[in-house]
Amino acid sequence: MHVDEPQSSEKRGTDVVHVGLLGYGNVGVAFTRLIDSQVEAIALRIGHELRVTRIAVRDVAKPRPDSALSDAGERLSGDAASLVDDPSIDVIVELIGGIEPARSLVLAALAAGKPVVTANKELLATFGAELLSAAENGGVDLFYEASVAGAIPLVRLLNDSLAGERIVRVMGIVNGTTNYMLTSMSEEGCDYAVALSEAQALGYAEADPTADVEGFDARAKAAILAGIAFDADVVASDVYTEGITAIGASDIAFAHKLGYVVKLLAVAERVSDGPAPAVAVRVHPAMVPREHPLASVRGAFNAVFVEGDTAGELMVYGRGAGGMATASAVLGDVVAAAHHLSEETRGRAVRREQVEVRPISELRTQYYLTLDVKDQPGVLAAVARVFGEHHVSIRSMEQIGLGGGARLVFITHTALEADVQATLTSLAGLDVVARVGVLLRVIGPER
Ligand code: HSE
Predict the structure, then answer these.
(1) CB within 6 Å of ligand 1 — which residues?
(2) Is the pLDDT of residue 249 over 50?
(3) Mean pLDDT, to the nearest integer, of 5-13?
(4) All CATH 3.40.50.720 domain ranges in the chain, comma separated
(5) Which among 221, 257, 263, 374 is annotated as catalytic?
(6) Burial degree of 228 (CB within 10 A; 0-12, 13-18, 19+)
(7) pLDDT, tens only, 132-160
(8) What's the pLDDT at 5?
(9) Which CATH architecture is the domain 154-320 placed in?
(10) Is the pLDDT of residue 365 over 50?
């Protein structure tokens, strides 16, 4: 590491760690402010003085609010590659987001033997194995705590605290926007459109909410979680994904009546070990039993529930988004990088093995599904026959609404997803079925 001549503000013996920051958006500004405003307090806590020495931006001339810069103006550069090459920079923090130029810059830094801290979930969920192997080859650390579940120390938990644990399943609420919306729909009884407007007004949901409500954000995080939990090379496109757009207030109310809360879950499961390891990874809305710890996660909060062979069940909870919360996770990683540099060590080597990712059609669980039907004699018999033909056993059925508004709500016994999907396809072809509605998978054993 670079150890500067002590300056007036530096205590003799305190190493100065120079950070090169790539990207100066919401999180970059928060991270710079956090370090600038607490430089001495952080130095006292960690024994290293952290400085954001250079900041790479796309457009140096772009007007920026003074409050976002303080004296950062002199630190700005339009040439990100020059920060990576700068021998006076000890650690690279990548907060550009997206694939390029982030990927090339991170690879260049790792190849140059410089530790990298990134919050880039898209990059990790697409090129995680490549980046980790580049870190291995460069003999340096790649930290990515902020790429999943913001301020929650989840990567560290799985990578370090539970490093020796055989993880069986990781199940998380990893998207705050959709959890906020589902909470509003559950607690205020409002419909999807109202919940979305509320989330947009509060700044949780973007003007174009697709990435959140269609589950794409959670999909990237599910891939990263599966990678860490199972040392598996899982990418976002491996993850079966459904969002929350089809869910109505009536589904949530019905689930509530049955003792469940509806949550958008990212689930990663170990299916088999040994010479042909296999995992299952998926994102979809699910009915979570009210007594399950994930059911109590309200609003924009995130939580991840982990099941290990010897540790049993545990859960971490916190803020998954927001500039400051994310900056806190970045800071934690920079501190770890600083320690490793001063001790001339690095974190344990992690690998990403090729695994089989099992298709959703192999899932076995209980299902909730709704059908809008004609309200006339023989409809229930016709519908029930279709379930039977596809080996799906009905556990309970209720009709809500009458006449033109008749809806049948089913809960199945545990069934195979492939059979349930075949049932839905056949039901959609029945004259008496006006619309096949929502399908929700039910978490936990039958009760
Ligand atoms: N949009 C995400 C969320 C945060 O709502 O949780 C960024 O990953």
Answers:
(1) 175-177, 204, 212, 217, 320-321
(2) yes
(3) 42
(4) 15-148+324-343
(5) 221
(6) buried
(7) 999 999 999 999 999 999 999 999 999 99
(8) 44
(9) 2-Layer Sandwich (3.30)
(10) yes
More confident of the two residues 8 and 178:
178
221 is known as an active-site residue: yes
Total Cβ atoms within 10 A of residue 253:
14
Distances (CA, A) of 166 to 163, 171, 358: 8, 15, 19
User: Within 10 Å of residue 255's Cβ, how many Cβ atoms?
Assistant: 26
Separation CA 56–CA 75 (nearest Å): 8
User: Residue 276 Cα, ligand 1 centroid: separation in angstroms?
Assistant: 34
Architecture of domain 361-442: 2-Layer Sandwich (3.30)
Instruction: Write out the residue limits of the CATH 3.30.360.10 domain(s) in the chain.
Output: 154-320
What is the pLDDT at residue 251?
A: 96
Residue with CA at minimum distance from ligand 1 atom 4: 321
Ligand 1 centroid, distance to 434 Cα (angstroms): 35
CA of 235 to the centre of ligand 1 (A): 18
Ligand 1 atom nearest residue 180's Cα:
5
Does the structure show a pLDDT above 50 at 10?
A: no
CATH of domain 15-148+324-343: 3.40.50.720
Q: Which atom of ligand 1 is nearest to the CA of 206?
A: 1
Angstrom distance (rounded) from CA 404 to CA 372: 9
Between the CA of 119 and the centroid of ligand 1 the distance, in Å, is: 12
